[in-house]
């Protein structure tokens, strides 16, 4: 469908709604396809879950809804469900011949919007579009209508519209901006909450206070005392957070969890939004955008993570960098989460308060970013959210998360958490890159003056017992550990982190160096971020980032970028980081596009702090 | 010509009604037929043949692993899939034997049940083949496939 067609379709939503159907049984798939076509949806089918993930990661904005069978040989349907939900934040409907309530329950707990029994009837399919609308409403707080669709249609339209628009002008930040502007409370319809680091921190604090097990959305909401935040927002964020924790608790690499939890979470969420978390950028940069699928993305293992970030569970990491930074454009919502997550993530939720402590960064970051990005991020996030659906890399992120843990763990403060995820996932080369990204976030976060004293980091580490990360050491800003992409210390991770974002979303980001300068702001969106990132790496931190920042208000990354530059990034093992960054960058460059978004990591002001 | 067409159509109608009455097909099949239109004239035939291919494949896989008793999981998942696809196309009897098969598995009587599944799907295949042939005849004679309303 061309963009124009898409737009038209949007106007006629639910007609033309883009559905991805996954079922290994070819008979059922064929029937499902036909049924969906008869509902006038735009159907894409695949009989492999892996292929489905690739498609989704390739372009977050390509689909509105996913329908998947439960029993599939190459991947458990529930797992796919989780990954899609976390990375791409798309509504997923489960299909099965199992009518056993146990399965239905499993579907629900894994985040399915609905659970249909085979044989599927067309009447049931005629109503599935409601899930798209519902999801959009829930996740967008104050999302504003682009004025594209009808209010009535709700987010889905908007999102689609946005998606379409994005497709049309991929790097056109303007749209995002417009959208962002109003996000505050204009659209009653979908209020997409941008889970900034700050917000997430509050969330985590509330959860800790209530006790993880006992945390209920209503109580959390009350404790958080945030205006305009609804119980639904909290509930959905809580769900994501829980899933995230569950996911990371399963991760063998404890470290990762620890350090990265926040970051990770945010990253993951963000990845959902579109991996952009880092620089995700909503930018449809190109095929590569979706980190997950695209090879370039690889390095950004965090895709998943980032994606996560975007999700409610999103670790604060994302936000760290600066939600507003273009990066998050997509994952605005996650951004917030991202930050918060970091704090909340600590594996020991039992610690309650500890979690927060652990992640001083996120806070910092929030502050840092809050200033710049809040607006931007929100906007971006909203946008991104929609667009990020396809967190390509995200799915990887999660798994990678565990693997990457290293990087993540490091960042006690923040977002490092996220980083970890990435580095591992991503090819060795990239990790560095990713770390860079993360670092950037970190630096941003770190740089923020409010950065809590290292002590906190230490505590964080402790809290995160899970991860034996070497970095756990007290030095929160272990930026200097650049060498280990794996466990990049906070700082390092920052760098890595950012790369993550960069890596995945726009491998090209790095390659965009050149662009950076020219585009820095403008459409750099996806690339802008990267560009800045790249620049950073090349040592142009100073000027570039600043420029970037200023130019791209929208781009969260810009903000982030700055941070990076000034932040620890440079200073922190400039050499090592640079190397990493450069290496990652190279990788990214080769990869292509995505990079654009990465730079956006938004605010890895943490880098700055590293320095 | 018209009488021939009319005759064929009547034959078709009777045949399909009998299939429903005998439980070979159920409502899902008529839903499937509704999905067929000018754009997808062979939809039902395609789906049904996909189904039969799946049946053959799954049954052969299952019968291979049954004697050795090695891969129960595969057998279970195979019959589960068969149950899903048969219910999706409205192959009622096949679906029922699949359900019975699942129960047989519980009591370790896999082989016996599998044979039933095999029998039913082959039976259905024959019947549907006849039905499609009738359809073809009608079309070739210039007639239209009657929309049969199954109550």
TrEMBL record, chain A:
InterPro entries: ARR-like (IPR045279), CheY-like_superfamily (IPR011006), Homeodomain-like_sf (IPR009057), Myb_dom (IPR017930), Myb_dom_plants (IPR006447), Response_reg_B-typ_pln (IPR017053), SANT/Myb (IPR001005), Sig_transdc_resp-reg_receiver (IPR001789). It is found in: Nucleus. Residues 136-189 are annotated as: Disordered. One of its GO terms (molecular function) is DNA-binding transcription factor activity. Residues 172-184 have a biased composition (Acidic residues). Pfam families: Myb_DNA-binding, Response_reg. The modification 4-aspartylphosphate is found at residue 69. Residues 153-162 have a biased composition (Polar residues). PROSITE patterns: HTH_MYB (PS51294), RESPONSE_REGULATORY (PS50110). GO terms for biological process: cytokinin-activated signaling pathway; phosphorelay signal transduction system. Residues 18-133 form the Response regulatory domain. One of its GO terms (cellular component) is nucleus. Belongs to the ARR family. Type-B subfamily. Transcriptional activator that binds specific DNA sequence. NCBIfam families: myb_SHAQKYF. This is Two-component response regulator. It comes from Capsella rubella. The lineage of its organism: Eukaryota, Viridiplantae, Streptophyta, Embryophyta, Tracheophyta.
Automatic annotation (TrEMBL), chain B:
InterPro entries: AHP1-5/YPD1, HPT_dom_sf, Sig_transdc_His_kin_Hpt_dom. The modification Phosphohistidine is found at residue 80. The keyword Transport does not apply. Residues 40-142 form the HPt domain. Keywords: Acetylation, Cytokinin signaling pathway, Cytoplasm, Nucleus, Phosphoprotein, Two-component regulatory system. One of its GO terms (molecular function) is histidine phosphotransfer kinase activity. GO terms for cellular component: cytosol; nucleus. One of its GO terms (biological process) is phosphorelay signal transduction system. It is found in: Cytoplasm, Cytosol; Nucleus. It comes from the Eukaryota. Functions as a two-component phosphorelay mediators between cytokinin sensor histidine kinases and response regulators (B-type ARRs). Plays an important role in propagating cytokinin signal transduction. Histidine-containing phosphotransfer domain (HPt) contains an active histidine that mediates the phosphotransfer. This is Histidine-containing phosphotransfer protein. It comes from Capsella rubella.
């Amino acid at each position: 469908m061309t963009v124009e067609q898409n737009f038209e379709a949007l106007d006629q939503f639910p007609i033309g709604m883009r559905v991805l159907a996954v079922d290994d049984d070819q008979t059922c798939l064929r029937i499902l396809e036909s049924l969906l076509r008869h509902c006038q949806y735009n159907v894409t089918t695949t009989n492999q879950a892996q292929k489905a993930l690739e498609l989704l990661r390739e372009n977050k904005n390509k689909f509105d809804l996913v329908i998947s069978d439960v029993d599939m040989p190459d991947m458990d349907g529930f797992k796919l469900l989780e990954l899609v939900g976390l990375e791409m934040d798309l509504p997923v409907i489960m299909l099965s011949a199992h009518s056993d309530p146990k399965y239905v329950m499993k579907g629900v707990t894994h985040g399915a919007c609905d659970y249909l029994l085979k044989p599927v009837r067309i009447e049931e399919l005629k109503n599935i579009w409601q899930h798209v609308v519902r999801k959009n409403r829930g996740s967008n707080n104050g999302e504003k209508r682009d004025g594209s669709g009808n209010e009535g249609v709700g987010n889905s339209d908007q999102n689609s519209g946005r998606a379409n628009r994005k497709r049309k002008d991929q790097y056109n930040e303007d749209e995002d901006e417009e959208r962002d502007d109003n996000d505050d409370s204009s659209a009653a319809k979908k209020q997409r909450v941008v889970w900034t680091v700050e917000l997430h921190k509050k969330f985590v604090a509330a959860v800790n206070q209530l006790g993880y097990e006992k945390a209920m959305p209503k109580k959390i909401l009350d404790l958080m005392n945030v205006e305009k935040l609804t119980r639904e927002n909290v509930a959905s964020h809580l769900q994501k957070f829980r899933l995230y924790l569950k996911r990371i608790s399963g991760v063998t690499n404890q470290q990762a969890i620890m350090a990265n939890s926040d970051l990770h979470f945010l990253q993951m969420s963000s990845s959902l939004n579109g991996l952009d978390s880092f620089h995700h950028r909503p930018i449809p940069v190109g095929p590569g955008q979706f980190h997950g699928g695209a090879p370039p993305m690889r390095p950004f293992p965090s895709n998943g993570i980032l994606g996560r970030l975007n999700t409610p569970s999103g670790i604060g990491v994302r936000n760290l960098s600066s939600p507003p930074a273009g990066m998050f454009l997509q994952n605005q919502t996650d951004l917030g989460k991202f930050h918060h997550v970091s704090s909340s993530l600590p594996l020991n939720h039992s610690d309650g308060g500890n979690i927060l402590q652990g992640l001083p960064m996120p806070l910092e970051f929030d502050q840092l970013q809050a200033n710049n990005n809040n607006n931007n991020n929100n906007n971006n996030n909203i946008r991104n959210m929609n667009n990020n659906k396809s967190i390509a890399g995200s799915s990887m992120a999660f798994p990678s998360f565990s693997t990457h843990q290293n990087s993540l763990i490091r960042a006690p403060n923040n977002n490092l958490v996220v980083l970890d995820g990435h580095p591992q996932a991503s090819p060795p080369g990239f990790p560095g890159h990713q770390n860079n990204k993360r670092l950037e976030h970190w630096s941003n976060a770190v740089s923020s003056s409010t950065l809590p004293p290292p002590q906190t980091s230490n505590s964080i580490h402790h809290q995160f017992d899970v991860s034996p990360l070497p970095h756990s050491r007290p030095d929160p800003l272990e930026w200097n550990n650049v060498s280990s992409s794996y466990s990049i210390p906070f700082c390092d991770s920052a760098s890595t982190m950012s790369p993550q974002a960069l890596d995945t979303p726009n491998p090209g980001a790095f390659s965009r160096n050149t662009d950076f300068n020219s585009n820095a702001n403008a459409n750099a969106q996806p690339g802008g971020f990267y560009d800045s990132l790249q620049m950073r790496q090349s040592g142009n931190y100073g000027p570039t980032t600043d420029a970037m920042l200023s130019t791209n208000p929208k781009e969260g990354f810009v903000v982030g970028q700055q941070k990076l530059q000034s932040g620890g990034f440079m200073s922190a093992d400039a050499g090592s980081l640079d190397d990493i960054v450069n290496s990652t960058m190279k990788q990214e460059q080769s990869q292509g596009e995505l990079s654009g978004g990465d730079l956006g990591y938004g605010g890895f002001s943490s880098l700055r702090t590293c320095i | 010509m018209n009488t021939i067409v009319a005759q064929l159509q009547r034959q078709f109608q009777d045949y399909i009604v009998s299939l429903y009455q005998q439980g070979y097909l159920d409502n899902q099949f008529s839903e499937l037929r509704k999905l067929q239109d000018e754009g997808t004239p062979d939809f039902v035939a395609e789906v049904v043949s996909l189904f039969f291919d799946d049946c053959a494949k799954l049954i052969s896989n299952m019968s291979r692993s049954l004697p050795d008793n090695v891969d129960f999981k595969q057998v279970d998942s195979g019959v589960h899939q068969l149950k899903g696809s048969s219910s999706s196309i409205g192959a009622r009897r096949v679906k029922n034997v699949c359900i019975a098969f699942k129960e047989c598995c519980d009591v370790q009587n896999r082989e016996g049940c599998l044979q039933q599944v095999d029998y039913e799907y082959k039976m259905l295949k024959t019947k549907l083949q006849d039905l499609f042939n009738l359809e073809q005849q009608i079309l070739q004679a210039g007639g239209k496939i009657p929309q049969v309303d199954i109550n």
